[in-house]
Amino acid sequence: MKNMLTKYENMMVNRIVTLRKTKIYGAIQRTMVLLYPFVIFGAIVSMIRSTTFVKGGFFDSLFKTTSWIPHISGISFFLGALARMSVGFAAVIAAYGVARFLAEEFHRDEQLAGITAIIGFMTLNFYNVEDGIVGFETAGIGFSSLFFGILAGVITALIFKLVGRKKEPEIFHTAQILQRIFHSIWAIFITITLFGIVNMLFYLFMDKALSSSINTWIYSSFSNVHNFFGLLALISVSIFLQYIGVGSPLNPTQFAGSDTMANIDAALKSKSAWNVPYPVNGHSIIGIYTNIGGVGSTLALLIAVLLISRRRNTQMIAQQAILPGFFNFNQPVLVGIPLIFNLTYLLPFLLAPIINMSLAVAALNLHWIPAAVYPIPTATPGILASFIGTNGNINALIFSLILLTIDVLIYLPFVRAAERVADLLDEERGQKNDVKN
């Protein structure tokens, strides 16, 4: 059995190393890392705002912070602006990064390709509000639309490859810069025009960003599903969407469907959460146990990295991302490790939440734990959600800790595999790696 697992790991590592060498995949992975400083900043700011400066946040529920902190609305607005202008522009940065890195691989002008990708992608999300006022779909340029930013970057770079000329040596004089622009001008025109046409066609059929429509459908579907296979199908689709950079609606810890309301009503009347009509539903399973630390149960990945990783950079990312991850803000680990479009982590990213959900359904049906029927404050730490949702049941808290431990064990071998991939790539490039001595 051990030999079979070793053989599978070797095969997986070799295939991932081969994939990492492809131009498009390499550009995407480099772009995810480029996003990291903006995303970690935005995640920390969002965590502070959601827990402390928003009514119903975790610390507000404990200490009533919104009632005694002065100028609370102004501070909340300021923090919201910081988050919006950092992680809220993630897809725009992704479009720039992918176009730049991929154009560089194609020996085209990477600076002009990156700028063109930004303008083209913003054109894709442009709309005319009224009386000539310019607006952009906020959902279309933020973290939940990374996939579309990546796609825009790839398309831009391919157009530059097909239409533009090869990049000239480094130039500094105005005349030489103009010559460089002339070499890429048709690629610029075609790219922006293409995205403008797509924008026009897109809004002829839809009045919302595609990612928002997908998430709205999944979120509404979760609200009143209370059977295992229905939740399994929905969670699998949603987590896969997050893996490819389309935002997942699984981050919220509440799913307020009619069955959730019926559970709360029954619990209040009987003063117990043990005999509610719908113990298995979106709130009691998905919102509480499935994604501890964010979609994909990524708090476990951070712990696994801290336990066994030998690489300084990976350790630093885990150290920086562990606090927001504790409060379910997992965007930093999604782009810092990275997880998005990273084949190494696809299996545990899907497997850990599904195992969590399966065990939670079994525990509820066996009456080992009560249903988590009570509302959860915004940005409640994932490992405390069950304790609060069951009104302080210690069995539920212990069960969450057991799930987190299982998730760490699931991620450990894949962290080792990721380290091997990184080591092999370093050796082939002749680079000194960042492994700790």
TrEMBL record:
It is a multi-pass membrane protein. One of its GO terms (biological process) is phosphoenolpyruvate-dependent sugar phosphotransferase system. The chain crosses the membrane at residues 33-54, 74-99, 111-129, 141-164, 185-205, 225-246, 288-309, 329-347, 394-414. InterPro entries: PTS_EIIC, PTS_EIIC_3, PTS_IIC_cello, PTS_Sugar-EIIC/EIIB. One of its GO terms (cellular component) is plasma membrane. One of its GO terms (molecular function) is protein-N(PI)-phosphohistidine-sugar phosphotransferase activity. Residues 8-414 form the PTS EIIC type-3 domain. PANTHER family: PTHR33989, PTS SYSTEM N,N'-DIACETYLCHITOBIOSE-SPECIFIC EIIC COMPONENT. The phosphoenolpyruvate-dependent sugar phosphotransferase system (PTS), a major carbohydrate active -transport system, catalyzes the phosphorylation of incoming sugar substrates concomitant with their translocation across the cell membrane. This is Permease IIC component. It comes from Pediococcus claussenii (strain ATCC BAA-344 / DSM 14800 / JCM 18046 / KCTC 3811 / LMG 21948 / P06). The lineage of its organism: Bacteria, Bacillati, Bacillota, Bacilli, Lactobacillales.
